[in-house]
Amino acid sequence: MTVILIGFMAAGKSTVAKAFDQGKFIDLDKKIEKEIGMTIAQFFQEYSEDKFRQIEREVFKTAVQSGYAVIATGGGIVKLAENRNCLKELENVVYLKADFETLYGRILSDKENSRPLALRSKEEVEKLFTQRAAFYEEVADIVIETQGKSLEEVVKEIQELK
Asked: Among 39, 35, 16, which Cα is nearest to 119's?
């Protein structure tokens, strides 16, 4: 069984993936950065978000076919209709959900991950959050509210899917 984690920036997708299955998980953003040889922020600046989304699409398709136990997607995986259609066909698509203020606080305090879309104003990031929330809901099989829960509690909820 493959579990696919979706959600907005800073929802905890990568953290949950690592905790859920330390041996057979993939973080799509990290995989893409390795393939393109630069950070996603650098790629956005040098090439464009549209070019990034095409690379993301290909890496996602390959990951789905590779048999990973857990796939941590990037927050923008739902931007392309092609990705949303693919997600709808898959099972165990888990939306890690939290409110905007919680996520925005995590984004601002996260010094490890480069999030080029988070460099916009708070209002623009919130607009992006609102737009994507509908897509996450549309493609998710399971919605897990992460607010106020420990990492262990979220992982346990996902493990109970098996």
From this structure: 39
The residue length of the chain stands at 162
In the chain, what is the straight-line distance between the N-terminal and C-terminal CA atoms, in Å? 8
Instruction: Give the whole-angstrom CA distance, residue 10 versus residue 102.
Output: 9
Cα 48–Cα 18–Cα 77 angle in degrees, nearest 5:
30
Q: How many CB atoms lie within 10 A of CB 131?
A: 11
Which contacts of 54-58 are long-range, i.e. CB under 8 A and separated by 24 or more positions? 56/28, 56/32, 56/83, 57/82, 57/83
- Specify the pTM: 0.93
Q: Give the contacts of 44 (CB within 8 A, at least 6 positions apart).
A: 52, 116, 117
Residue in 4, 27, 16, 23 with CA at minimum distance from that of residue 152 = 16
pLDDT digits (tens, 9 = 90+) for 22-43: 668 999 999 999 999 999 989 9
Q: What pLDDT is attached to residue 114?
A: 63
Alpha helix positions (H), the chain: 13-20, 28-36, 40-46, 49-65, 81-89, 100-109, 122-139, 151-159
